[in-house]
Amino acid sequence: MIVRITAKIVTSLAGMAEAQVLSFVAYTERDERVRIISARRATRDEQEHYFKTNA
Question: Which of 17, 24, 53, 54 has the largest CB neighbor count within 10 A?
Answer without folding.
Answer: 24
